[in-house]
Amino acid sequence: MNILGISCFYHDSAACLIKDGHIVAAAQEERFTRKKHDERFPIKAIEYCLKEGGITIDQVDILTFYDKPFLKFERLLETYLSYAPRGLRSFLLAMPVWLKEKLWVPSVIKKEIGYKGKIIFAEHHQSHAASAFYPSPFQEAAILTIDGVGEWATASYGIGKDKGMKIEAEIHFPHSLGLLYSAFTYYTGFKVNSGEYKVMGLAPYGKPIYVGRIYKYLVDLKEDGSFRLNMEYFNYAQGLTMTNNKFHQLFGGPPRKPESKLTQREMDIARSIQDVTEEIMLRLARYVHQQTGQKNLCLAGGVALNCVANGRILREGPFEDIWIQPAAGDAGGALGAALFVWHQELNNARSADGIHDTQCGSYLGPSYTNTEVKHFLDMEGISYRELQDSELFNETAGLLAQQKVIGWFSGRMEFGPRALGNRSIIGDARDPNMQKNMNLKIKFRESFRPFAPSVLAEYAPKYFDIDRPTPYMLLTASVKKKIIPAVTHIDNSARPQTVHAETNPRFHNLLEAFRKKTDCPVIVNTSFNVRGEPIVCTPEDAYRCFMRTDMDYLVLENFLIDKTKQHILQETDNWRSTYELD
């Protein structure tokens, strides 16, 4: 039984293939098109999934879509009518794409990929909930989903047990924690649906001086975590911006212009909305625990990527354990929709051992053999050295110990927004200058942005205040040792990835080689891309990024490439620049 899941048309479109209940492949369209957060129909991601599964589109038994377009359109029309005549410009801009494409998903599917079989539409938050529960290690658990908006729901909770899953209650648009956070993302001068990480990273530099103002004027928060937003201060329901003049007056001026200097005011605003978000998520988690009586919690939806709030839920909340979908945003909806059909619609059994998830480390994207890499290098006349595994790990570890910055490309590409050791830029966590240098010379991004540590799982409790695996970088923890300044944020926190030999033996071997040389099992791990560009997918993407930054070395599978031995990259039709530095 082959089930193809699709999410698209808003941001982070993706495809996923489930074969007899097992996740065979999943990838975001952006990785292939090189357009960050690409929302278009995921033709290339579908092509990859079918190729990985060794099937054609005619062998797909069921295709499933991650939300219900007509329900979403109903919400759109009702919202515009309730605000009319305000919002006319936004309405006129939205209608053509809805009437031409977004409403007619079956027609688009048939036209784009020639699929003529059965199509099942899941609800948006059902897809999120399924992506959280079904791959989790729990046989039964509470489920909490929080994002911007699906059809009408902006948050939901429910219970998953065995193969069944039921949504118990929802919060509806326009009252949305995701859109509240995005409004502050917009106001502080960052891009909505991509700059939320920046707000979270900026927050520790500020003081929560606006929290009282947010609760007084913007958010009516109840003890159970439910809330209502005062829509007099927001513009997203009917306009083309997130906030309005009343919001701007409340916080003392217009939104920060993108790329302008950050001031203490933006830092304080970021800290304030982060604190409010954490409080809402904690109250929601406590209420869900009270209502469900479950000891484990599964999280998904874009807000579940707020790793600071997740860390607090784990430490301060009532649940014994939590599991967060690594592709928690809309991309993960493709995976959730496919699993929803397999377990819920087709009634197939599920068993979990309480320890291991079925996400396969989220290594679900394309991989390239040494033969394919060598062909590329030889065709382009690139200088390289081919090394056996033991030589490669030992030599790369030695270069890291010399504070060299290395592009590390190995195995299957990650599914979700985090690089987890297969499409990563890595460095020495002990180097106090590494964070600044990587931000400015490699990533071309704001100097305040923190980097995550990758740590050998068996050593994690010695370096971080954490007592369990965190393989997907979705929890923050306090740093115990002062010897890793490159991954220690200003508030002494870090977002660790525990590296496990069973899910990523090559990355684990590299860290072990580094530990033997330095007595430190921790390195810097950031995604292999520059600002404004998706994470690299192919050897070509990796080499292009390598040559246009100050990285010192590039590892492509078993090939080590030294920057000092490379010719200057010439632009040709085959090497068109894809950089759009926003």
Automatic annotation (TrEMBL):
<feature type="domain" description="Carbamoyltransferase">
    <location>
        <begin position="3"/>
        <end position="339"/>
    </location>
</feature>
<dbReference type="InterPro" id="IPR043129">
    <property type="entry name" value="ATPase_NBD"/>
</dbReference>
<dbReference type="InterPro" id="IPR031730">
    <property type="entry name" value="Carbam_trans_C"/>
</dbReference>
<feature type="domain" description="Carbamoyltransferase C-terminal">
    <location>
        <begin position="397"/>
        <end position="563"/>
    </location>
</feature>
<dbReference type="InterPro" id="IPR003696">
    <property type="entry name" value="Carbtransf_dom"/>
</dbReference>
<protein>
    <recommendedName>
        <fullName>Carbamoyltransferase</fullName>
    </recommendedName>
</protein>
<dbReference type="Pfam" id="PF16861">
    <property type="entry name" value="Carbam_trans_C"/>
</dbReference>
<comment type="similarity">
    <text>Belongs to the NodU/CmcH family.</text>
</comment>
<dbReference type="Pfam" id="PF02543">
    <property type="entry name" value="Carbam_trans_N"/>
</dbReference>
<dbReference type="GO" id="GO:0003824">
    <property type="term" value="F:catalytic activity"/>
</dbReference>
<dbReference type="InterPro" id="IPR051338">
    <property type="entry name" value="NodU/CmcH_Carbamoyltrnsfr"/>
</dbReference>
<dbReference type="InterPro" id="IPR038152">
    <property type="entry name" value="Carbam_trans_C_sf"/>
</dbReference>
